[in-house]
């Protein structure tokens, strides 16, 4: 029908181009009218119902009936499995600190650091040493501010001395904050510095090394406090102490784990008075680093 109509149209165009001013021939008009009438009167030969058409389409989609229900189930399982894998990768990328923290373990080799220091440091780099969990990381003392963003940036370089508290060798409480967990895609090498503080017990030892002197502290308290309990930064029940602070449980910012040790070496009687200018007391103790989501999207 299409080709017949095209032939008729071409014949009309050729006749019109040959005699553009002449009137159409009566035979041509009759032939066109005959074709139009024939098209209008053509009967519908496809008498299949809608249900039969659906079945026919389904038959073709299933490759002529060769695909069974199990094949469709396999396709569905593949789609769901691929979606689950993609979701797992995304969740791990943004929130892996919660999954990894429980698996962080101390090294099998125990540090050879002596239990009681002699007052002489091995080197002059400021650092904290905790033999029981085989920890030895730098301490950032020169931050000069307690703004959360500045502390988070400094924590990429180690653990951080909380400005305004006493310094090692001074009377009062030295406050040191560190990460218990952090996203592995964030910057910094000390994401899990304090993740094992919960393993420290009463009478365990840790060291703060500063200005060529190693200060030894014996732990007498290990507890969990609320995030807004800023009293842990102030003077403690004993006169010369150091307090280690991190988030608890690891991977969250819900609470803070606080480990307090009393200075036993060098003799605290030789400590000086603290000379740091007082700083504004914070409302909340420093927390975990911003998540990868926050770093990417600024939320």
Please give the structural blueprint:
Elements: H1 2-18, H2 26-40, H3 50-61, H4 69-100, E1 127-130, E2 135-140, H5 148-154, E3 159-161, E4 172-177, E5 205-210, E6 213-226, E7 240-248, E8 255-265, H6 292-297
Parallel strand pairs: 2-3, 4-7
Antiparallel strand pairs: 1-2, 1-5, 3-4, 5-6, 6-8, 7-8
Polypeptide structure, described:
- This protein is an alpha+beta fold and 299 residues long.
- Helix content is 30%, strand content 20%.
- It contains six helices and eight strands; from the N terminus they run H-H-H-H-E-E-H-E-E-E-E-E-E-H.
- It has helices at residues 2-18, 26-40, 50-61, 69-100, 148-154, 292-297, and strands at residues 127-130, 135-140, 159-161, 172-177, 205-210, 213-226, 240-248, 255-265.
- An eight-stranded mixed barrel has the order 1-2-3-4-7-8-6-5.
- A hairpin with a 4-residue loop joins strand 1 and strand 2.
Descriptive tags:
single chain, 299 residues, alpha+beta
Mean pLDDT: 79
**How many beta-strand runs?**
8
Radius of gyration: 40 Å
Low-confidence stretches: 107-119
First and last CA, distance: 66 Å
Q: What is the N-to-C succession of helices and strands?
A: HHHHEEHEEEEEEH
The shape is elongated
By secondary-structure content and strand pairing, the structural class works out as: alpha+beta
> Can you give the helix content as a percent range?
25-40%
Number of helices: 6
Strand order of the main beta sheet, please?
A: 1-2-3-4-7-8-6-5
Portion of residues in beta strands equals: 15-25%
Biggest β-sheet description: 8 strands, mixed, barrel
């Amino acid at each position: 029908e299409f080709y017949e109509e095209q032939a008729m149209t071409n014949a009309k165009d050729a006749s019109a181009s040959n005699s553009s001013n002449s009137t159409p021939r009566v035979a041509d008009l009759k032939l066109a009218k005959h074709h139009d009438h024939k098209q209008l009167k053509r009967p519908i030969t496809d008498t299949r119902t809608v249900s039969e058409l659906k079945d026919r389409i389904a038959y073709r989609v299933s490759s002529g009936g060769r695909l069974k229900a199990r094949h469709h189930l396999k396709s569905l399982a593949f789609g769901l499995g691929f979606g689950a894998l993609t979701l797992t990768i995304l969740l791990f990328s943004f929130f892996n600190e919660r999954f990894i923290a429980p698996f962080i373990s101390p090294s099998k080799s125990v540090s050879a650091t002596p239990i009681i220091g002699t007052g002489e440091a091995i080197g002059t780099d400021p650092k904290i040493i905790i033999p029981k969990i085989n920890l030895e990381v730098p301490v950032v003392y020169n931050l000069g501010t307690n703004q959360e963003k500045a502390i988070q940036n400094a924590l990429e370089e180690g653990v951080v001395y909380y400005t305004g508290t006493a310094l090692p060798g001074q009377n009062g409480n030295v406050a040191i904050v560190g990460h218990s967990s952090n996203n592995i895609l964030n910057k910094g090498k000390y994401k899990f510095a304090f993740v094992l503080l919960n393993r420290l017990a009463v009478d365990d030892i840790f060291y703060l090394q500063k200005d060529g002197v190693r200060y030894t502290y014996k732990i007498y308290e290990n507890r969990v406090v609320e995030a807004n309990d800023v009293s842990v930064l102030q003077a403690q029940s004993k006169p010369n102490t150091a307090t280690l602070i991190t988030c608890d449980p690891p991977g969250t910012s819900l609470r803070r784990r606080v480990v307090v040790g009393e200075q036993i070496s060098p003799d605290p009687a030789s400590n000086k008075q603290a000379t740091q200018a007082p700083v504004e007391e914070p409302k909340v103790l420093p927390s975990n680093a911003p998540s990868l989501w926050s770093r990417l999207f600024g939320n």
